[in-house]
Amino acid sequence: MIKIVIDTKGGDKGATEMIKGAKAALMKYDQLSVLLVGDESVISSECKKLEMPMDRVEILDAPLEITNYDSAADAIFNKTESSMLKGLKTLSEREDLFGLVTTGNTGVLLTGAMRYLSGKDRVRPALAAVLPSENGGFTCLVDTGATIDCNSQMLHHFARLGSDFMKQSYAIDSPKIGLLSNGSESSKGNKLVKETYPVLESDESLNFVGNIEGNRALSGDCDVLVCDGFAGNQVMKVTEGTATRIITDIMKYAHRTGSDEIKKLGLHLMEIYDIGSLGGGYILGITKPVIKARGNAGEKAVVSIAGMFVNMASNKAMFDKSKNKI
Amino acid sequence: MIKIVIDTKGGDKGATEMIKGAKAALMKYDQLSVLLVGDESVISSECKKLEMPMDRVEILDAPLEITNYDSAADAIFNKTESSMLKGLKTLSEREDLFGLVTTGNTGVLLTGAMRYLSGKDRVRPALAAVLPSENGGFTCLVDTGATIDCNSQMLHHFARLGSDFMKQSYAIDSPKIGLLSNGSESSKGNKLVKETYPVLESDESLNFVGNIEGNRALSGDCDVLVCDGFAGNQVMKVTEGTATRIITDIMKYAHRTGSDEIKKLGLHLMEIYDIGSLGGGYILGITKPVIKARGNAGEKAVVSIAGMFVNMASNKAMFDKSKNKI
């Protein structure tokens, strides 16, 4: 059995949607049980309505909500009774809990994760995304926006976190580490990249493969792509923006021509390239798995993230590789 | 009549391809004439072979080539007789010449442009790309890689150059200026973006519309998108990489299913999203139009760039907007 904490508050779609997701996840994964954190009365009544299998459900009352207007510095001291922070604290204290998922405020989550789930080094955690690569595998992009301004020491740290994560969760023996740059030659890069290159190159614990250009970001040339949070945010959002735009074009074309064949293609591409539905971002550098779902995550995302936890617990890649190919 | 300088050397495909492009451009644009710079004997013999209309062709002998291994600092002093630098010098000296196109080394080109074509301020020129936006218009992305590490003064300068360019070449009265960031709120951004925001905001000559996220880069929310050369390079390359990947998926699917309809769609998308075929990058901040074509530019790119010059000369947008929609 694996038991995960689900923060029912802080999302755009409300607690009901998160609880519906929990129900669907419980139906899908026999080995799963959940600890639902939030407003107890709301959770109880929803559970009844949805006929939840209550032998696999536990409820933790924490009606206070972390909003997007909360600053991390304030929340960490004044909102310890919020669903997110109480959830993190409970996760850190109880051995039977495997991980936590929340749709809430990223800044508070990172600070909370550092407070309650830090390892010995107490480093700032990184936010990683695992994206489908061209060759049918996956690339872990780190950092995707937790730390916007970085130095080479941070990027070195991201490389190590990403490498460990891909070893553990994807069973890759020696993950290839790439450094996002504006050219593949070792001489290319901004100041940060030029400072980081020799640091990664000289770390013998890393399988560093050099600079990777933006058009090769998701080519599969590397298993871990390291960059500062500003650049990582651009890679994620530009990929998403371009894919959305092309797929919108295709759906319009299908509509205009009335072609079912093209509509089918468009829907299929939508499934592959919908970065949102892939689940959430991983918080790396802490002692237990925590996943940040998008603010607008709904039932489908909760199920997908539950699957990520189940697969992590069984130490195998979370996605079916065959699905990631057209 | 408009006369443009074509550097026949420095490209991956050799002089013949550039001269073929010149011929095709002369056939397409009646008002065009060309000055071909390079190895005179090669150019003369190619012109004969291709039956060029020699009344609209002039040849300038400069057999020395700028390669990708030349450093800008060296070349600018020791290779003034190269086709690129002799071309730039001639462009600066002769009133009958409108602009120049080259496929050669970007670093040498920028330094050469600054040496021979600087305005009064002698600022470092920027490299801009004009990309088709979602709404059928165009977005000028600046800088796309000429200056990798920037400060807020440089980004302010890029905003002004981009604004002037979109006024002049696209007849937009008050171009909307966006700042590439990791969130749309004014509080978002890395150190550079946060420093640049108030500078752009307080410049009354600019129609600053605030921060733009990567997924909205080519949405048409702004006419000029300002960023440092590292980020601009990522936007260009990630867009290209994502588009190429999706279109490759579509063509594979067409091949497997044998669907002519889907193949037609794939080819159509290829035309819209092939950033390479759109022409080249504009060098902004100098006294005459200079366009940097890709190293692998061929006949088609030369024709497309000649069209850009012809349209600039007649002060109207260079692309047919209807073409940019599916």
Task: Supply the key terms.
homodimer, 326 residues, alpha/beta, Isopropylmalate Dehydrogenase, eleven-stranded mixed sheet, 10 helices
Task: Characterize the structure shown.
The structure is a homodimer of 326-residue chains. Chain A is an alpha/beta fold and 326 residues long. Chain A has 2 domains: 1-120 and 285-326, Isopropylmalate Dehydrogenase (3-Layer(aba) Sandwich); 126-283, Isopropylmalate Dehydrogenase (3-Layer(aba) Sandwich), CATH 3.40.718. Chain A has helices at 14-28, 40-49, 72-78, 83-93, 106-117, 152-170, 191-201, 229-257, 260-273, 299-313; strands spanning 2-7, 32-38, 57-61, 97-102, 126-132, 138-142, 176-181, 207-213, 224-226, 281-284, 290-292. The first copy, chain A, has an 11-stranded mixed β-sheet with strand order 3-2-1-4-11-10-5-6-9-7-8, sandwiched between helices. Chain A is globular and about 60 Å long. The interface between A and B is large, with 49 and 49 residues.
Give a quick precis of the structure.
Chain A is α/β, with parallel strands linked by helices and 326 residues long. The first copy, chain A, is built from 10 helices and 11 strands. Chain A has 2 domains: 1-120 and 285-326, Isopropylmalate Dehydrogenase; 126-283, Isopropylmalate Dehydrogenase.
